[in-house]
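Entry:
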Amino acid sequence: MLNCMSPILQLHRQLSNGLDVVRRSSEGCLRLSSLTTKTNLRWACASAAVSAVLIFAASGQSGGTRPQNLSAASLKTADPTPRPTAKPTPAPTAAPTPAPTPAPTPEPPPPPPPIAPEPEPVAASGPAPLPGTGPNYYVDDVNGNDGNGGTSESAAWRSLDRASDFTIPPGARLLFRRGGAWAGTLKIEESGAGGLPVVIGSYGSGPLPVIQGANDCIALFGSGIIVAQMQMQDCWSGVRIPAGASSNRVQDSVLAGNVAGVLVSEGASDNAIIGNTFQNNNKMSVNTPGGYDDSGAFGVLLNGDRNEVAYNQISGSDAFSYDYGRDGAAVEIYKGQGNSIHHNTAVDNHAFSELGDPRTQDNTFAYNLVQSSLPDSTFLVTRGGQDGHGPVVNTRLFNNTVVMTGPGSQGFVCHGGCNGGVLTMRNNVIQAVQKAGYADGAFDEDYDFYAGGITQFPLGPHSAVGNPMFNDPSGGDFHLAGGSPAIDSGIDMGYGADLEGRSVPRDGNGDGFAVADRGAFER
């Protein structure tokens, strides 16, 4: 998560359960002031590290039309491909200009030798057809030769360097052999055109091809590029979309063991991250004692605008931090505007999302299932103008189902002057142990349902606290059981399908009227 918030969260957890939001002691204000000073130092340190790496590396609201059978249990048991040997700590270099935080480490370590990945589960029907029209170009890490023409499996290229140097025409597909592994960076500088994308994908049978062990596994400098059916692991960013790149798509891929599974840089826009599996992206780019400058463990890091993150399974974005104890986020937003994060399933991430920087605004989270059994986890953190990295304007939470069972878990945190211009919530079902939610001011909240810990904020007239009546919460089934007060008690938020593709609204209680349910599942 935006690591400057970890001390703030600790302060919230130290408050008495009976604390009234409006009554705070002068001692608490002094502590918050002290923490703000420390967080400013951390952000300044992290900002200095970002631009050096970026210089080195440079050498929507949806109706939910993609139903999937999403299983929280499968995420908890999934393992990424074994990783290469540990990388040494890189030597820092001076940063000439400020840059967004967090950002890649200043210099990547030497790439380790490739390791053959374990098989990634593949549907019995085989992989879906790749987009693009061809021609196809092939890369084989075992039988390929960079002196070949690359135009057939028997005449495949061998290296990432050769594949990166090739000028890919619109519609063409650059395909990597399944079961193969490459260490280094694949750079794509071409763009699609005329409705024809540039496609990066796989061929053959077996586990996904792996690119690993560099600053960026794949860097997309062009626009109109699709990355599909690939595995990116043990890099700073599994896929980086730098400034100026737009309308790219990462789909049906595995991203594991990175600092950030996908990084969308400031100045990149209108990209889609759809239907991927993010596993244990749990590395910290900075993790040193003192300084409040630790950062990392992101599934998706959004510094850009109008990006869509949907139908993904995200787990294990959680890592040790010297400064904050634990840190990480499934989807982190810093300076990003107009992003839509919807219809995702997230399990055991330190936070689902945290947002920061005054430029950040108009981001929407809808129909996500967020589950965590970690001791301390939070669904979402945002902030008002009294925070040094706010205000974050117009964060919207619609129809999310959140179940957190750790003793220190919290539903949402809105601090630093929370108000109706900062946060809007409708139709959510949120259950957490320590606090179902915390806000230090009245905000735009109604038609939500809360369970578990205290609700440390003023509830809207149609919001309620009680038992949401899930089908089988101990078994990971968070559909609403018959008789649940969350059935047919929400309002229309403009979405046409729930997390699993069922139409919204439906008549869930049999009274003859179709009304939207609260939460991510429509009965």
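The longest strand covers residues 429-439.
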